[in-house]
Amino acid sequence: MSTCVVPATSNGHSKTARRVIVCAGTGCAAGGAWKVLQAFRAIDADATISHEACPHREITKSGCQGFCQMGPLVTILPEGVFYTKVTPADVPEIAERTLSHGELVDRLLYQDPSSKKKCRSTEEIPFYQRQTRFVLKDCGYIDPESIDEYLGLGGYEAAKLAYTRMTPPAICAEITKSGLRGRGGGGFPTGRKWETARAQIATQKYVICNGDEGDPGAFMDRSVMEGNPHSVVEGLMIAARAIGASQAYVYVRAEYPLAVKRMRKAVRDAEALGILGENVFGSGQRIRCEVLEGAGAFVCGEETAMIASIDGLRGMPAPKPPFPAVSGLRGRPTIINNVETLAQVPRILREGAEAYRALGTERSPGTKTFALTGHVVNTGLIEVPFGTSLREVVFNIGGGVVDDNGKINRKGFKAVQIGGPSGGCLTPEHLDLPLDFDSLKTVGAMVGSGGLVVMNQRTCMVAVARFFMEFTQRESCGKCVLCREGTMQLLALLDDVIEGRGTAETLHLLETLGGAVQLGSLCGLGKTAPNPVLSTLRYFREEYEDHVFRKRCRTGQCKALLRPEINQQVCKGCGLCVPACAVSAITGEKKKPHRIDQDLCIKCGACAQKCNLNAVEGI
Amino acid sequence: MLASLEQPSTAAQKFERICDILDRNARHPARLIPILQAVQEEYRYLPEEVLTYVATALGVTPARVYGVATFYAHFALEPKGKHVIRLCDGTACHVRRSIPILNAIRERLKLDEKHKTTTDQLFTVETVACLGACGLAPVVVVDEEVHGGMTPERAVAVIDAIAVQEEAACQPA
């Protein structure tokens, strides 16, 4: 970028070109990033302020820079100064000190909680240092709404290569050689999928970009669509060329209004420049692209359900085979690729399959983005090569596990839930397991779309299983009996465990019914719906047994199993708790230890809050 | 009450807009979902008679239109309140205790699982599976504004502020 180059000055003053990048992803926007951006623009436009010290300034926004919890984030180039939690009130000072004089505003720098060191730029922050940003490389840098910036960084060159210099079989072969696997969950080899569709003879073929990222706790695709929408459009163009399709769709989840807006703008801008449309790059090929908004159904992330939805029907899956690559939308060969998969494609073509294979593992090449959330110091969007250990992700990038009050707790790690409602749990014994498609499968989990929810010791694993089961039960489309009724029964069985009605039979039923639902469902939703239950039963069986046989929840999260009691040795009979109890369950003489009537108690915990001596136990 | 807050718009004008939406989508049954989305934007929900009309215009059965309208969570068959409060109950928000926030909001607005819209049609409370703002968990979205790092108290304060504004707007000048 020409504006980033330090211009030579004739008078000897250090006149520096600076670029201010305000993160405008959903996370930072919620924290007030738009106001910060406006404040920078206002100062920039203010004629009364002298900008002589820094005449070459550029104020832009970017997509998600990943460190959502520290937002709004502001990066200043070329130094790469990285400010966190910026408010509009900080902007004049940044403009004066950093933009004009190249000084740092200390209080806005990120301080590493473990070393207490102030970090000047992202390169010094462990959260960024240990990542390998491949798909996200340009996400936190370019203005997602400017096609010129994308073009300036070599954008659409891979598409041009694909349309003018490469034959469809050569593109498929290159992608197969790169070993790229679908990032949407299954990990199916992308090249093989394309080759199947390419080999079909049909008058019309379709490519669809799956942006229906429905897993709770996952936002990788959203960040890519918001942060670098043109990379998705370019990937989609290459896919279309590879199979011989002239119509492409981008199906975006309705809950992501900003992603819809940016994808639509990217498509419009590409059309305006003639990149999309008739006679692409003079090749005589045609490609149209339409952005469709989902209408709120998790099951539509499944290929065949998405095809039904695009055709204006209820999003219900169809049996496979025939696979969509053979007979998909309107009976034509169709390939559906995840956002992140497509976003990798342009760089693979540009840099070659070999370079791509250098990252990641033999069978899972490349990088994977993960949404790191839950009880962890640094939440946000991360990208690491496949094969990185869970320990590295949770403790080094994530900065460790926190307790309920947000304090770091070294012994707090209990589990990581990976892959959302289709995935499973990983425990301390898996901390050194390499994260890749195949090794995760061996322990009953899956990469899924990439949600990583860290859970501390205060999390009840039965309640976690119930949470996911409630989700899949609600989202089951109802077509397969075992999914529709089975998930409902699994949920009821989990409720029995949580509410203290469980027996040994309940645990046995959970396992056999879980297996039956896996077998008797058509699509990925039903086939994987029991995973969270089966996985927690496998690794946290003693917690289930506690609930069932001892009627106890060791984390104190399951209300029905609580038995609040007043420690008779500690209680001084002050009587503070008596009026606090809404159901008058506490009785006792003044200055003598009080008691709780278990039949009346509703386990609200009000007495424990009132007690100054912490005499109320078990709640 | 609510009607007076909206732009003056007669039934005939609205009907014209429906025809316009249908035309823009070439009256093609495959475009049913974008059509319903546009209709909902117009009415804030999908009135039954409009669904029947859309079915006739597209040449499909009303059952098919109704089937689609009830399948997707985004479509509402009952009017929503003026302000829509969406509480995220995705995994990240859930483990960071989103449910106490939901309970506090419902208590404040005297709503429960079955009753999602207040009787004065000012507020609708919904839960969503994930808004993708997990880094800020727990999250509440009021209309289009995202509020991160919520607590029951802060959520109630946000609602209180809107209620005060609404009351002020209703007072004669």
Describe the structure concisely for a colleague:
The complex is a heterodimer of chains A (619) and B (173). Chain A is α/β, with parallel strands linked by helices and 619 residues long.
Provide structural commentary.
The complex is a heterodimer of chains A (619) and B (173). Chain A is 37% helix and 14% strand. Chain A is of the alpha/beta class. Chain A has five domains: 2-124, 3-Layer(aba) Sandwich (Glutaredoxin); 147-357, 3-Layer(aba) Sandwich (Rossmann fold), CATH 3.40.50; 367-459, Ubiquitin-like (UB roll); 462-549, NADH-ubiquinone oxidoreductase 51kDa subunit, iron-sulphur binding domain (de novo design (two linked rop proteins)), CATH 1.20.1440; 563-619, Alpha-Beta Plaits. In chain A, the strands form six sheets. Chain A has a five-stranded mixed beta sheet with strand order 12-11-15-13-14, sandwiched between helices. In chain A, strands 2-1-3-4 form a four-stranded mixed beta sheet, covered by helices on one side. In chain A, strand 5 (110-111) and strand 6 (118-119) form a beta hairpin. In chain A, helix 7 runs antiparallel to helix 8, helix 9 (220-227) crosses helix 10 and helix 18 (481-498) runs antiparallel to helix 19. The relative contact order of chain A is 0.08. Chain B is of the alpha+beta class. Chain B folds into two domains: 8-71, NADH-quinone oxidoreductase subunit E (Arc Repressor Mutant, subunit A); 83-170, Glutaredoxin. Chain B contains eight helices and four strands, in the order H-H-H-H-H-E-H-H-E-E-E-H. In chain B, strands 2-1-3-4 form a four-stranded mixed beta sheet, covered by helices on one side. In chain B, helix 2 runs antiparallel to helix 3. The longest helix of chain B is centred in the C-terminal third of the chain and has 19 residues, at 152-170. At the A-B interface, helix 1, strand 11, strand 15 and helix 17 of A face helix 3, helix 5, helix 6 and strand 4 of B.
